[in-house]
Structure formats: C-alpha cells, structure tokens
Fold this protein.
Amino acid sequence: MKLIKKMIAVLAFVPVFALANEGGYPLDHAENRTTDLPALQNGAKLFVNYCLNCHSASAMRYNRLRDIGLTEDQIKANLLFTGDKVGDLMKNTMSAKDAKAWFGAVPPDLSVIARAKASGAGSGADWLYTYLRTYYKDDSRPTGWNNMVFPNVGMPHVLWELQGVRNAKFVEAEDPHEHGKMVHTFAGFETVSKGKLSETEFDSEVTDLVAYLQWMGEPSQNNRKRLGVFVVLFLAVLSVLAWRLNASYWKEVK
Amino acid sequence: MAFVEKKLPADAPVAAKALNWVDSRFPLTKLWNDQWGNYYAPKNFNFWYIFGSLAMLVLVIQIVTGIFLVMHYKPDATLAFASVEYIMRDVPWGWLVRYMHSTGASAFFIIVYLHMTRALLYGSYRKPRELIWLFGFAIFLCLMGEAFMGYLLPWGQMSYWGAQVIVNLFGAIPFIGPDLSLWIRGDYVVSDATLNRFFAFHVIAIPLILLGLVAAHLIALHEVGSNNPDGIEVKDNLGPDGHPVDSIPSHPYYSVHDIFGVTVFLVIFSAVVFFAPEMGGYFLEYNNFIPADSLKTPPHIAPTWYFTPFYSILRATTTEFLYVVMAAVVGYVSLVYLKSKLPAIVKAGIAALGLLMIIGMMPFGLEAKFWGVVLFGSSVVILGALPWLDQSPAKSIRYRPEWHKYMFLLFGFAFVTLGYLGIQPPSPGRERLSQVCTVIYFGFFLLMPWWSTMGTFKPVPKRVTFSAH
C-alpha cells in the first residue's frame, strides 16, 4: 500500500509543464490506412529512410514487407542499406551507450510501438500521428526541438524538412479548473520557415508512416480479421445446428 | 479368481471385439457409463449450469495452446519479450495460438466467476456438497496463482511491475516477510531468477495440481450427484429403475446440451480472438507491449481485470480504515457471543482472535500495509467458508424471501464496483467508495449465518420445476 503510494508520489515530480498526467495534449485521430497497400509501402519507405537510423524494429523481418505488396527485389533495391540480408531482422547499429550519450535516452524499439502507445486518450496510431506533427522549435533543449505530446523528448524533429520549422505560442491564461490561478497554456503554432510539403501533404505522409507502424505492430492483423469472418460465420451456423439438435433430443424429456 | 474374458460370437464386429479385449483388462465401458453415459443428472438445469463444462473446455484450450507456446517461448529475461514477438510473427499460426491463450485466460475467469455465481444462487455448496465447493475453492486459488505467474512470462512493463508489487506484499508479513519475498523472487528484485521459477510453476507445477483438483472436484460431484435450480435433493425421489424420477442420463441429453453451450461459447471466444484480442487493453494491456525496464516505473500499476476486486480491498485498507475494521471486529465478536449457538470454546477462540486483531491494528501495532494484505487474503479465503456461513432453510434463491435477492444484488454490485475501482488510479472519493464496498463485501459473508435465516421462506416443492421443451 505505502510502496504503491511512494511510487506514484515520485512520479508526480516529473515535470509535465501545465499538463496534468490525466489530461495531456488532446490527440488527433489518425485515418486508418492499414488496408491501403500503396499507403503502407509509402510508410515503409518513410520508416526505413527516417526512423531506422536511430531506432530498431528488431522483431520485424525485411522480407515480411512482401505482405504489403513489395517483391524481394524491390525490398533489396530500395529498403536495404546496411548490408543486411532480406531475411534479416530490422536491427540498427547504434549502440545503447552512444544513444544515451547523444540523446539522453535509448531510442525505443519500434516493432510494437503502435500497440504500446494506446491508452484511454486514443489509439497508439492516434498518439503517433499527433506526436509526429506537434514538434516545435525550442532552443532550451539539447536537440533544439520540443514536442507537445511528449514534453522534453530526447528525439529531434526528424521530419522537419518536410513539415518546416514552427514555434509554439504560450500565453498566461486562467486555469479553467481553478478560478484566479494563472497557468502556462498552449496557444497554437506559428510557422518560422516552410517545409517541402504543405500541411495536408505532410499530414498525409505522417498518416502513411503511422499506418505502416500500425501494420508493423501486428503484421498478421488483416489476415486475422479476414479469417475471423469465416470462423465466426461457420461457428454461428454450427451453433444453430447444435441448438436444433439439442431441441430434438430434449423433446423426449417429459 | 481365474481371469475370464467374455467371449463374443465369431462374427461380431472387430470394434466390439477390441472393446471387449480392453474391458476385460481396464474398466473403460464401466468408467464411461458411471461417469457420463449412465450418470443421471437433474433434468431442470438452466443457463447457469453450462459454466462447469465450459471451464473444462477452457482448461484444455489453455493447456494445448500453452504447449505450443512453450515450443517457441524463451524463459530468459533478455529473450522472453522478443520470443513472444517471434511467436506472433514468424511461427506459422503463432499469433492465433498466442491470442487463444491470452483470451482463454480472461475467459477462464469470466466462466469461473459465473460458475461460482450459480453455486451462490442455488446453494450448490450446501451439505452434502461442501467438499465439491472446497475443491473448487482450491482450484480458484491455483487459477489465480497460475494467471499471476503466467502474466510475468511476456516480460513487459506491466508483467514486471505487477509482479514486483504483489511479491513485495509478502514483505509486509511480520518477522518472515522480507525473507519470504526474497525466497519467492529468488533475488532482491524481480529478475531472471523470478522469471525462470514462475515459468516452471506456470507450465507444469500448477497445471498438474489443477488437473488433480479438477479430477477430485468431479469425483466429489459424482459421489453425491448434482444440485439443481430448485435446490431439492432429486435422490429423495427414486423411480422404479432406481434412478431419481427428476433425473435423466447425461448421455445423450447433456452431451448434446453441452455441445450447444460449447458452440455458443466458441462464437463469442472466436469473435474476441479474431476481432478484439486486446479487448480495449483489458485482455492484453497496452503497457505490456513495452519491454520490462527495472528503472522506469509505469505511472499507473494495476493488476489484470480479474484480480481488481481483491486489489481494491487491499488499497482500501488505509490507516484510517483500520479504525472501521476494529469497530467491526468488536461488533462481530459481540454478535457471536450474544446471538450464536456455537460451542463456548469456539466463541472464546473467536474472541481471542478478535482481541489479537485489535491490538495488532493499533497505531503501535502492525502497519496498514500488513492488514491490507490480511484483508486481501481474507476476501478470497472467506469464499471457502460459505457452506458453513449459509444457514438458509432453502438451498435455492427461488424459495428464499424476496429481499434475499436484493442482498445478492448488493453483493454483486459491491464486487463489480470494487473491480472497476481497482482499474482506476486512486483518488480520495474512490478510496471512500472502495472502503464502503469492502464493508458490504465482508458483511455479506460474515453476517450470513444470521441474515440467511431471516424472512418468510416459500414452500420448497417435492418435484423439480420443469416444463417440456
């Protein structure tokens, strides 16, 4: 009892600015493109180009990408960079020690990140979608970047060239819950320099990347749902037959 | 006596001859007939009576899926998490086996809770079925241990920290606590040593005990015969063939009835496995997709949903609540002395125990954490005492006073509320509510010797209530 209270009390000291643990930055809803093969392939391209340098996806094999419509040759030609073979797992070469020294934390493995980030506030995809789009310039941070969903994150804004550079505006506003108390509140982003993509284009690219991460979290998910339809239908028919068989026997019982 | 094999005519089918060979050496046909084929059960079973056979089905599902999982799982702290993902991705149909096992675990508890509800409704634990209930209670304890140990195996954040919290609870026991925790863990914190031993317990030790207990549970049942929704003893009314007039042979009637029950269960089970295996984070917790990190405590550690009612009782036991418990102990001992017909020595024993508890709960005594563990354990153990707590003249809820139904509903509401509160992070309001529900929970059981006899009972019929299908 006391131990649990102690552990929770310790975490209350984690600085989360004005955002309470329960509240958090509201998550945007990510459009579900996990059955859209071109989107998944685009997401795979973005993932290998932007994420795989620091992060690993050590449960994911390169050749599993065949499930999203790529041939082994296409994978070898476009997505294999490090001398890995196409049947290898997506490991990375950055050592944990180096990562800790450079970023302050080891970049987590992304194999099941879309499953891990789910919560009451939204699905894992929603979290990732909002996270990747709410970076802002912050010179007080070692990387020069900060994030609305994950305050003081060690990861820089990898997609900055696509989205552009933005500042976050903070104002002193009255706390809606406590009358009279002034609180540091987020008041929107302002563009510093434009990126290669427009806002809608960037959002679409991130949606593709998030769809890929969702798919990679459980590559058999589409297969599972497809099979499920047949299984449940079959069992439903079987139950009806079992029901009538049962009824026919029980007619004899007086 | 010389060995005599029954001789079948020369033109008898091969199958009959083979069965004859076996029957002369092993009581196969006799077993089948005694245990199922010719085993008579009351004909008025309703929906609540399907859960026993469903529990057996889920036990088989867990064992078979478990065997296939163990072929690929690696019980090593550095390899476990990755091996589960290997099963999900690289083992053909591994994802299906994994989801069946995780869904099966939650399904097992839903079924077992409903199975116990049936016993509560119809007094299935009353004499002469106390031993069936006690074996069942032991099965429930083993099941909780099995689930707890199994949950550590994926080695996710919730696996690790949940185990850490619960094993640390044993540290609250005076004198032996810290050493006991060390012995269970095999290390000063949950580590690879803990994983290895929990693996051994989960895969073979507890399943063996469970199989033995299930056999004992069924043997005890077949010895006295099943209860029924009217709570009457069908063996009191035998027909000319020697079987109870209100009973029917299990085969074919309950074979075909249970097959129907199984197919309906499989529809629901498959719907979950194929379309919602995570069940919103309740069957597969989101936090458990993060590998265990001994340096990062999750902001909110909650046990799996099936443990939450008891966990709530643990959390409800604060230092302030101990005063309520002390008052309740005083009240209860007085009630036992004034209003019970127990022998004097038993009353004296209860009074002594009460006195020890009150001294122990004083500010100078043992801390609330210890009493939390005591209440946590007692909330489970009190189930075992039901056959002796329930003094109702009628076994079944059907013939008890109407207001007894509301007592059951109140208990059910308290249990479900405790469960819900156990999932939420703590807050002052929730703490108060869980304390109220704890009082209701224990009150329901401890006051049962009195309230179960109160009110106007309806006349219990001689024959079961059955309408032709």
